[in-house]
Design a protein that fits this description.
Oligomer: single chain
Largest sheet: 7 strands, mixed
Structural class: alpha/beta
Helix content: 25-40%
């Protein structure tokens, strides 16, 4: 999910057949370089500045970390983390083979290692992170799979940062949500959450104080429409999975302008799609988290590139406890025993990897490609057919000057082609530059654009930016000029959260003994997000720890059978 769920654009498909299929439609182009220019240095320091541009200007200074430790969800997440560290040490640690080093796979390996087991994490590509992967270009500048935002309402992610001792790598921003005003090019409207008020009063105050996007009659009708969700709680939220956002709004008699002003932007931020496609359950889950937790909607940026600043600390932790992480290790086939259980993972380099248990933590689209034929009609796996990754495009543009109409925060563009964006030369310490702006933008919905050329996408992006920066950017580059750009396309990102998907999401423990799933598409309450990926890894690890006796006995039996077979062959 983009912002509210995973401002993350995606784990690029890595299986050859899938890539070839995408290539045939022109959809596997990963990134493009426009103009070659001399390298400009990325400064590591950060200055503080306050603009006098007007009352909507955000103060460009990082905010202290909010107090999250006493919230119910944070304590619940901390308790689950602690259960792995306090679990009885296994007499014989399990070797657990995990495919996919995105956040779900990294989380699974981390917590299995905490419980005393020996994970072997295999990543197909040469980069960690999956949906949060990033690469460095020839100039030393980073470009990412997606624009990643860390919310206060991500208790398992926040615990993970604390467990790794890297809380200081999150750059917290003002507790605000800032929306562009399409009817007033270059202007913004904001929702400010006062720190002095508890939840949900701070959220209610933020909505009531904003008079630019919704009128008072619209606010009242919207509030009345939300009453069933507030009264009905989680049961009501889950029951709305069968309705799209648009259908739910009509059912609740909420004015269409509320959708136009707020929920188009929110839908694109959550799942890269529009309200006529997105399940209302997704919106209500986000609203519930943001309204029930004082700091739930507060945002932070990572202080640098995700592979080094987040993924590597997890890898270091795994290795310190005896686990292994291997890159360039693509799964070609899931090989089975005669009884239908997993025998090994066959890699594209011809080697096989065996373990006591197996976890598939790659995207659901890749799992479906590699699913063994004997498993395909099992209802647990058959239901996965409805879960399909949504395409998304992440755009990075380096300009020849410092743009003024931008802020040290995430911005909702409310344009037809763009979802959210940020000037990363302001928001991120590693990418900071006092002289030039680098805009990172999520291009969504992207289904009609995923097969288009990079130059087409940049041209369309510049036309949208002309509306956001009318005094500074012109589509013909007669004002700010592009120094270079990168376009990262993900044909299959997070699963598309359309109505009636919830019953298709699998539990982490599969019906195949010794085979488990992890990923934000699996069953957990945070849907397609970084938080969902981390939590799915914890649930997967919990299932394996709970199944230890069964898995250990199965491993001993296989060893015994192999010994007997070897002895028979010798005689």
């Amino acid at each position: 999910m983009v912002v509210f769920g995973n401002v993350s654009a995606a784990n690029l498909p890595y299986q050859n057949g899938f890539l070839e299929a995408l290539s045939s439609s022109g959809g596997c182009e990963l990134m493009g370089h426009s103009f070659r220019v001399p390298t400009f240095q990325t400064l590591k320091t950060r200055t503080r500045r306050r603009s006098s541009a007007g009352p909507l200007q955000v103060v460009c200074v990082d905010i202290p970390r909010p107090e999250l430790e006493n919230t119910v969800n944070f304590l619940e997440a901390a308790s689950l983390s602690a259960s792995f560290r306090s679990a009885p040490r296994p007499a014989k640690p399990l070797k657990v083979v995990i495919a996919g080093a995105g956040l779900a796979g990294l989380s699974t390996a981390k917590y299995l290692a905490d419980a005393g087991h020996k994970p072997l994490l295999l990543e197909a590509r040469d980069v960690l992170g999956g949906k949060i992967a990033a690469w460095k270009d020839e100039d030393g500048d980073w470009y990412e799979t997606g624009l990643h935002i860390f919310f206060g309402a991500y208790p398992n992610v926040q615990n993970l940062f604390g467990e790794l001792g890297i809380n200081d790598r999150l750059q917290w921003k003002e507790h605000s949500m800032i929306f562009a005003m399409p009817s007033k090019p270059g202007e913004f409207s904001r929702f400010d959450f006062p720190d002095v008020l508890p939840a949900p009063l701070n959220g209610i105050w933020a909505i009531l104080r904003n008079n630019e996007m919704l009128t008072w009659p619209e606010k009242i009708k919207f509030a009345i429409g939300l009453l069933p969700a507030m009264v009905g709680g989680q049961a009501y939220v889950e029951a709305q999975d069968g309705l799209s956002v648009k259908e739910w709004m009509e059912k609740q008699a909420i004015p269409e302008r509320v959708t136009d002003e707020v929920f188009i932007a929110m839908s694109k931020a959550l799942n890269f799609i529009n309200p006529d496609e997105l399940s209302m359950q997704c919106i209500l889950i986000a609203l519930n988290r943001f309204l029930q937790e004082k700091h739930g909607s507060k945002m932070a940026f990572l202080d640098g590139n995700p592979p080094e600043r987040l993924c590597m600390p997890i890898v270091d932790h795994i290795r310190s406890l005896g686990g292994e992480v291997q890159l360039n290790s693509r799964i070609k086939k899931i090989e089975l025993n005669n009884d239908g259980t997993v025998k090994s993972f066959l890699l594209t380099n011809g080697s096989t990897v065996e373990g006591d248990a197996y976890v598939f933590a790659a995207p659901v689209d890749i799992l479906k490609l590699l699913l063994p034929d004997p498993w395909k009609e099992i209802p647990y796996f058959k239901k996965l057919d409805k879960l399909v990754g949504v395409p998304v495009i992440n755009v990075h543009i380096w300009f020849d000057r410092k743009l003024k109409n931008t802020y040290d925060h995430l911005l909702f563009s409310r344009s037809n082609l763009l979802s959210v964006y940020a000037d990363m030369s302001l928001t991120c310490k590693e990418y900071y530059d006092p002289n030039r702006s680098m805009l990172e933008l999520v291009f969504a919905p992207a289904e009609e654009w995923i097969s288009r050329t990079d130059s087409d996408i940049i041209d369309a992006t510049m036309k949208e930016l002309e509306k956001l920066f009318p005094d500074e950017i012109s589509a013909d580059q007669s004002k700010a000029k592009i120094l270079k750009y990168h376009v990262v396309k993900t044909p299959r990102s997070v699963y598309k959260t359309i109505p009636n998907c919830e019953p298709c999401r699998p539990l982490q423990r599969s019906p195949i003994q010794g085979f488990y799933l992890a990923g934000d598409y699996t069953k957990q309450k945070y849907l397609a997000s970084m938080e969902g990926a981390v939590l799915s890894g914890k649930f997967c690890s919990q299932s394996i720890v709970q199944d230890y006796e069964l898995l250990a006995a199965s491993g001993s039996r296989k060893l015994s059978e192999a010994t007997v077979s070897s002895s028979s062959s010798s005689s």
